[in-house]
Amino acid sequence: MMRPYTLKTLLILSSFWLGGCAQSTQAVEPSRTELSTETQGSKEPAKTQRSAEYISCSQKALARLDYTRCQSAELQREDVLLNQEYQSAIKRIQTFRHEDLKHMQNLWIKYRDAKCNFFYHKESGSGGQNDAMDCYIDMSQQRTDELKALF
């Protein structure tokens, strides 16, 4: 019996397939030019944007795998931005609060993973994987903005 892949495994595998959609992950924030219309089950649209690189890549996508590659590259860009903002927040707060922020960030990661994994399960097929990827992208972008506002 084949064991189903976890979302993390699929994300790792899809990162190897980035090919033509991958851009280098630099310290420069990509321009966010298009609002995301993904809702992850919400009645309100997400208030996040997609990078110009993502828009260009997704417009060229011919199959779901191509679209997944675009999402994976976008998630990598957002993850870089989130990590940069987290490191910046650490530098802006007093030393005795570093552990509190680290704990808060770890709790947020657990929440994000649980929420986004809800959208992907073995019965949902590849559409569920794309929904989960959009969730990861949106939540990472929202967390980056939240860290900027908090600290």
TrEMBL record:
All copies of domain Lysozyme inhibitor LprI-like N-terminal, residue ranges: 57-147
Q: Where is this region: Disordered?
A: 29-51
What are the record keywords, sorted?
Signal
| Signal sequence extent | 1-27
Q: Which domain of life is it from?
A: Bacteria
Q: Does the keyword Iron apply?
A: no
Is the keyword Cell wall biogenesis/degradation in the record? no
Query: What is the name attached to this protein's record?
Result: Lysozyme inhibitor LprI-like N-terminal domain-containing protein
Q: From which organism does this entry originate?
A: Vibrio aquimaris
